[in-house]
Specification:
- The chain is an alpha/beta fold and 423 residues long.
- It folds into three domains: 150 residues, Glutamyl-tRNA reductase, N-terminal domain (Beta Polymerase, domain 2, 2-Layer Sandwich); 146 residues, Rossmann fold; 84 residues, no CATH class.
- Helices cover 54% and strands 13% of the residues.
- The chain is built from 15 helices and ten strands.
- The protein has a six-stranded parallel beta sheet, with helices on both faces. The protein has a four-stranded antiparallel beta sheet with strand order 2-3-1-4.
- Helix 11 links the parallel strand 8 and strand 9.
- Helix 4 packs parallel to helix 6, helix 7 crosses helix 8 and helix 13 runs antiparallel to helix 14.
- The radius of gyration is 29 Å and the shape is elongated.
- The chain starts with a strand and ends in a 15-residue tail after the last helix.
- 39% of the residues are buried.
């Protein structure tokens, strides 16, 4: 049976080190590679700082994903393989922020939308994943409208600021340096701006980007070339770049800390990491990374427990509707194919009858229309009851009846994949 299967690697099982060792390739390249598999009809790939998720529509989805995981050298002990219903439930919960490290975060909904649109643009989605991801985005919006599950720290960026506040006992009067002006750096800066901080410095390799973000958030831009000087001044450094290498190495931090007795708090929320892990061994240096944000999540989860229950109730309700929608689609595919076949026969036989009648009579537009309406009516009335039975069978999960009808009318349950969609 062709259904949705998925594989997920997330913060719930994998550490930041294991996430880094996992695949870091080009999304479009991976999409095309998966889609080129003869058994894969649709696929979507998601990659964020703390999760990798792959969804496929395939009659052999579990084996396809298992082989893919092995080929990409994923550590199998941190990989979860989900079947159709599990995949749909997980996707809906994910869109609502219930599967996030920071429960209720808003950022994940935009990431789901972006990854889905990339797959759609690449040509690797179809009816099944279109239905699933459209529903997930709609449910994510509904949960955030009808509950307060996203109250408080709702992103890794804001959680990093909360962590700094918790470790230092407050940020008043502290000099904070944010490295990076991408999505995560912007979230950090926004969280600091909401605390009315006036000692926020922002560094980026492109100074204009740092200046634009600083101007919009009320911070101060500094040149990346002066990074060491600004780290030396800072009490807190939150690093969130997309650099493929370390931005702060142990040699630099050792030099900065010479003769310094004031503690330096470093928070690394980049993936791959920005800060060399060995800097934690330097005296007066405290280093935290994404794994440490679980503390903030536990605190937030306690605050949002009742809201999370409301969100889960909505997810359960919407999952039932989604499963019903898939059942209806299965019946609709069979019904549509039957109607197409019978209408084709109707058209041929009507034309044959008209040809015979013309041998004896003049057949004008009126006569043609009468015959057309008659044959349409006969087909619709004959197929009306079977249509109801098939749709009811789908709703009752009577796959045996659907399969028998498919074989009886020689209907392919799995539409042929258009291998020319990926250019």
């Amino acid at each position: 049976m062709t259904e949705i299967n998925s594989m997920v690697i997330t913060h719930s099982k994998a550490s930041i080190e294991e996430m880094e060792r996992s695949w870091n390739g080009d999304l479009e390249e991976v999409l095309r590679s998966l889609y080129s598999n003869e058994f894969v009809q649709e696929c979507v790939v998601m990659k964020t700082c703390n999760r990798i998720e792959i969804y496929v529509v395939s009659p052999k989805g579990s084996s396809v994903l298992f082989n893919f995981a092995k080929s990409m050298a994923f550590p199998l002990q941190v990989v979860e393989f989900l079947d159709h219903n599990e995949s749909l439930l997980h996707l809906l919960r994910l869109a609502c922020g219930l599967e996030s490290m920071i429960v209720g975060e808003d950022q994940i909904l935009g990431q789901i939308r972006d990854m889905y649109l990339l797959a759609k643009k690449t040509g690797t989605t179809g009816r099944m994943l279109d239905t699933a991801f459209s529903k997930a985005i709609q449910v994510g919006k509904r949960v955030r409208t009808e509950t307060e599950v996203n109250r408080g720290s709702v992103s890794i960026g804001s959680a990093a600021v909360d962590l700094a506040e918790m470790v230092l006992g407050g940020l008043e009067g502290k000099m904070i340096l944010v490295i990076g002006t991408g999505e995560m750096g912007t979230l950090v800066t926004r969280a600091l701006a909401h605390r009315e901080m006036d000692l926020v410095y922002i560094a980026n390799r492109t100074f204009e980007k740092a200046r634009d973000l600083a101007d919009s958030m009320g911070g101060h831009a500094v040149h990346f070339e002066n990074l060491a000087e600004n780290v030396r001044k800072a009490d807190v450094v939150i690093s969130a770049t997309s650099a493929p290498h370390y931005v702060l190495r142990i040699s630099l931090i050792e030099e900065i800390m010479k003769g310094r007795e004031r503690d330096l708090l470093l928070i690394d929320i980049a993936n791959p990491r920005d800060i060399e892990s060995s800097v934690a061994e330097i005296e007066h240096v405290k280093l935290y990374n994404i794994d440490n944000l679980r503390i903030i999540n536990e605190r937030n989860l306690a605050q949002r427990k009742e809201e999370a229950k409301k969100a889960e109730k909505i997810v359960d309700e919407e999952l039932c509707l989604l499963l019903k929608q898939y059942k209806q689609q299965k019946a609709d595919h069979i019904v549509s194919a039957i109607y197409a076949n019978v209408y084709n026969v109707r058209k041929q036989e009507k034309e044959r009858a008209v040809t015979k009648l013309r041998a004896y009579h003049t057949i004008g537009e009126i006569e043609n229309k009468v015959l057309d309406d008659l044959t349409h009516s006969i087909v619709n009335k004959i197929l009306a009851e079977p249509t109801k039975v098939l749709r009811n069978a789908a709703e009752m999960s009577d796959d045996e009846l659907l399969d028998v009808v498919s074989r009886l009318f020689n209907i392919d349950k799995i539409p042929e994949k258009n291998n020319n969609k990926c250019k």
